[in-house]
Amino acid sequence: MLRSVDPTPASPGLNSYAVLPTYPATNYVTDNGLFTSVPGEPVNHANNAMSAFQNLLHPPASGQDADKVRAGRAVFEKAGCGACHSGPALTNHRIIPEAEIGTEPTRARAGAKMEARLSPPTMFAVDTPFPLPDRPAIRPVPLAGEALAQVRLAWGQGGTEGGYKVPNLVGLAWTAPYLHDSGVAVGPDAANQLGVPGTLYRGVAPDPANSLRALVDRDLRAKVVAANAASDTARIARVTGKGHAFWADAGSGVSPDEQTALIAYLLSVDRLTEPAATP
After folding, report:
1. Bridge partners, residue 178, by sequence
2. Are 177 and 183 in contact (CB under 8 A)?
3. In 10 A of CB 93, how many CB atoms?
4. Which residues, in sequence order, are CB contacts of 279 under 8 Å at separation 6+?
5. Domains of the chain: which residue ranges?
6. Peptide bond into 177 cis (omega under 30)
7. Confidence at residue 272, expressed as pLDDT on a 0 to 100 scale
8. What's CA 11's distance to the chain center, in Å?
9. What backbone phi and psi angles, to 5 degrees, belong to 194?
10. For residue range 255-278, what is the model confidence (pLDDT) as tens digits?
């Protein structure tokens, strides 16, 4: 049935692909040796065009109080969040070892077995047309030193236990629940709608402000982690809500009002930001 409607029967899958000679071996440029391509365009042009388009998008404004947002940015700096969440998108783009983040490790190690079929990182020359000519030019992608170490850490390879990239903070008002496992979730009823069992598993949308509070408040996070741990479904899915123990709460010298202002600031980030003012 699928074959009868497949628009690209000569290509793996339903899209048209430029296929590296190493297919289906993985490499650090493409995890299966395929580049989505459109006939009449250069190889991988469609992916590059989509990336350029997505870079122009930003989420709707969340309508936070301007005074609270300004105060919250100061709390953000006071709490040291900018050590990792820096730059215009509030990320330093670094891969942090899973053990340092303290999260459930399964996803960080997910790419480890792919190392057994790893080929050298290569791609087609940028001006390669599609469909491919008989002997397309293949270019090596140089990768060494710290760049290679970061890539291996991201894939859980090279003897590492894997890690996670510092996420950007643009659009947090629209992306709850939080953390790599989406385990930090709190509903509109912060006392009773805790973790994924109290929200997503019940068809309740996580509340962004309450969920962000659980991200930075250790007492509320402990309740979220406990709620996840009590769910067989969450345990099977390796959803814990643990990790990222960087707090902005009473235990770290942040008052309730400051914490609320911090959350207002985090919810307000809807585009690339300006550097913080120097005191």
Report:
1. 184
2. yes
3. 13
4. none
5. 59-93+168-270
6. yes
7. 87
8. 29
9. -115, 135
10. 999 999 999 999 999 988 765 544
